[in-house]
Design brief:
Length: 202
Amino acid sequence: MKLPKVRELIEALRALFGRRYTSRFPAEVPPVPEGFRGIPRFDPAVCVGCGACAVVCPAKDIEVTDEVRDGTGVRRLTIHYDDCIFCAQCERNCPTERGVVLTPEYDLATADRHGLRETVEKELVLCELCGGIIGARDHLRWIARRVGTAAYTNPTLMLTMLSELLPGGAPAPEKGGVVRSDRMRILCPRCRRVSALEFSLE
């Protein structure tokens, strides 16, 4: 039998009697370096529900669902961690820059895959004539703040921004088609064009 080389024998002795190379995970969680891309988390106070994170996700891991019932709507954004590739595209392309961020957390070991998800809900703004979805209310408020005084040129942005100041909200739409007063309502693009046409014919 051929004897081992001296270098290999020294390395074997060093590995046998030296300190271990691995950590005692999960009993001891090792620190992660700065810039580590871990589990993405929504910040409900900052996220505006625009859905940009779902559009840029290469793994199609972020799901956006809109639910409308009885004149009210909710948008749900859900991250499925079991499919996430931790690429940070959602964080990089978030218009608010902090709506979704990658945390230093990385331990996803579990026996229940249904627990590997996080959901944030946002209220939807609906067209006051046809009930169509315009967008998330927080997103419209964020746009109004970004454009400043130019928001007053758009009735949808203006009324969304001032909704807290209007007790009881706007009056119910009148029956019998679009009239002049409908120009100052929260309308979808289709109903806005119809109201503009009716307005021009008056």
